[in-house]
Amino acid sequence: MLTSKQRAFLKAEAHSLKPIVHIGKKGLNDPVKTDIRHALDARELIKVTLLQNTDEDIHEVADILETEIGCDTVLKIGRILILYKESAKKENRKLSPKVKMI
């Protein structure tokens, strides 16, 4: 679980990021979850967009991803989700040391 200070730091870090994963009309299927897993492992902090043509609810998507992938939802705003998870690979851990110090 993230503290409010950690959340604020991650929100600021994510501000300049472009959404990498898009959830479209096929919804939150396994290939999308795999993409999210890989992106989180490589970057630790990502933006996910729910496109206009999806039937998915942003709150349900966030809950499913938190449960299945073990990531933290930093922010839900409109149709954008900001997700954070410490990378399993040591060389990709650029943000997590800073987050732990907060």
TrEMBL record:
InterPro entries: RNA-binding_CRM, RNA-binding_domain, RNA-binding_YhbY, YhbY-like_sf. The keyword Thylakoid does not apply. The keyword RNA-binding applies. GO terms for molecular function: RNA binding. Keywords: RNA-binding. Pfam families: CRS1_YhbY. Signal peptide: none annotated. Residues 1-96 form the CRM domain. It comes from the Bacteria. PANTHER family: RNA-BINDING PROTEIN YHBY (PTHR40065). This is Ribosome assembly RNA-binding protein YhbY.
